[in-house]
Amino acid sequence: MKIRLITPYPVTARNGNSITALRWRRILAALGHRVILEERYGGEPCDLMIALHARRSFLSIKLFRRLHPALPLIVTLTGTDLYRDIRKNPNARKSLEWATRLIVLQAQGVTELPKRFRPKTRVIYQSAPLLTGKAPSSRNGFRVCVIGHMRLEKDPLRTALAARRLPASSRVQVIHIGRALSNEMEKRARAEAARNPRYRWIGELPHWKARRALAQSHLLALTSHMEGSSNVLCEALASSVPVVASRIPGLMGTLGEDYPGYFSVGNARELARLLRKAESDPGFYRTLKSHCARLRPLVDPRHEGAAWKALLNELRVSTFSPTAAK
User: d(Cα 125, Cα 147) in Å, to the nearest integer?
Assistant: First the structure.
């Protein structure tokens, strides 16, 4: 098939959407399809469109559905779609209506959708290739990695604030990889690095370097207020790096309800306790590590490839015909 894959961000953005779009292009091409990756659909012919983001890709979705009312349309729901936009944005809600299939990236995403959309929703977990590394001896420091561009939804400085609460005997060092998306956020990161000896902001790195830094860390900290899923979580699982995470559906849908490494959203005190326990309690650290190791098959690239193959085969035989855009 000839597939148009729409992502509202340029692939050079090095954010979660661009990483996902590039990975999906490789998967779909390996399945034998011709994939055109673009930021906006312009009306060109194809057999199928996949749109990342119900709200941000709305204009592309609308045009595709108007020009091709009988062709399959797959809409992938991001965190801001699931946990904000489909509740209040009419364009995001219309994208749900027009989609032939909806994709969510972790199991709890399905429950956020109105019941009438759940039968056409599929869960496709994101994947990451295996990349192992060796963290330095904990005697020389306990390395906690934070990866993600700095925006409010990510609560990017929460780990640094938690690290301030650690006792002087703690060896925790926070390494933050990611670009500041505003001048204000850059000022805050620089000020934090200047006053907090446990925090180092590296800035943006090529994806392969960020993955290597993660694989050489003792722990990943995920502090988001809102996630549809998380590429960096999948990369941590693929690299056998345990995580501490905010207790939100977008992370619990991958890690499970019973994961012992959660803290309340925005709670630096709880996060500090987790960091200290992971650093100082070998039994607790092993528990985190073994739980994450059990989840590694979930992020195996073969699993994601098989899910895409099944979905495209399903669409080939589907008789679903969505309502044309008005």
Answer: 19
Q: What is the pLDDT of residues 297-324, one digit of tens each?
A: 999 999 999 999 999 999 985 544 444 3
Is a pLDDT exceeding 60 seen at residue 154?
A: yes
Q: Give the global pTM.
A: 0.88
Q: Whole-angstrom Cα distance, residue 201 to residue 199?
A: 7
Residue 13: the pLDDT is 61
Q: What one-character DSSP code corresponds to residue 154? A: G
The pLDDT, as a whole number, for residue 138 is: 61
Which listed CATH number (3.10.310.40, 3.40.50.2000, 1.10.1200.10, 3.10.20.600) goes with 2-127+300-317? Answer: 3.40.50.2000
Identify the CATH number of the domain defined by range 138-299.
3.40.50.2000
Q: Give span(s): CATH 3.40.50.2000, the chain.
A: 2-127+300-317, 138-299
CB 30 within 8 A of CB 305: yes
Pairing type for strands 121-123 and 142-147 reads unpaired
- C-alpha distances (whole Å) from 222 to each of 124, 198, 255 are 21, 17, 12
